Amino acid sequence: MTLTFENEQDFDLGFDPEEVAAAVINGVLDQEACPYEAEVELILTDPENIRTMNREHRNIDRETDVLSFPMVDYPSPASFDFLETEEGDDCFNPDSGELMLGDIVISVARARAQAEEYGHSLRREFAFLVAHSMLHLLGYDHMTPEEAAVMEAKQEEVLQRLGITRD
């Protein structure tokens, strides 16, 4: 797995965000039985930048905690079979051969506020947001209660397996 990591923030999170992100990304890929090496870009940004991105890409003019920009349009969540067809050819980096999953953008300030609100560590909130966004990159959504329940269970499962609890 290739993780392109960019931290636009100038404060210490109290943990290595690149290391935590890599563990969570690999955990989700393993959980979903992704048969390919994959690449993901992760950007840590501020409330103003994520609000601008939310407005430009989703027409929602407000800050959010995380944005996901999938490169693959799965016919159903984590269905990798179609990648073996001609349709899937554009989903792979021609230089590395890795599956290009997409980009994750996290507002660190929002993650910090949510960690305080929910009574757990910033590390746990950060890991949760990465897991949540990875599931979006793999085609999951939470538009219905049923979809939301599936995502919540998968997020919790990967965090538990990694020992990232509600500390």
UniProtKB/TrEMBL annotation:
Enzyme Commission code: 3.1.-.-
Chain sites annotated for binding Zn(2+): H132, H136, H142
GO-annotated biological processes: rRNA processing
GO cellular component, one term: cytoplasm
InterPro entries to which the protein is assigned, alphabetical: MetalPrtase_cat_dom_sf_prd, YbeY, YbeY_CS
Zinc keyword on record: yes
Localization, UniProt: Cytoplasm
SUPFAM superfamilies registered for this protein in UniProt: Metalloproteases ('zincins'), catalytic domain
Co-factor note (free text): Binds 1 zinc ion.
Function text: Single strand-specific metallo-endoribonuclease involved in late-stage 70S ribosome quality control and in maturation of the 3' terminus of the 16S rRNA.
Family that this chain belongs to: Belongs to the endoribonuclease YbeY family.
Protein name (Swiss-Prot/TrEMBL): Endoribonuclease YbeY
Gene source species: Fusicatenibacter saccharivorans
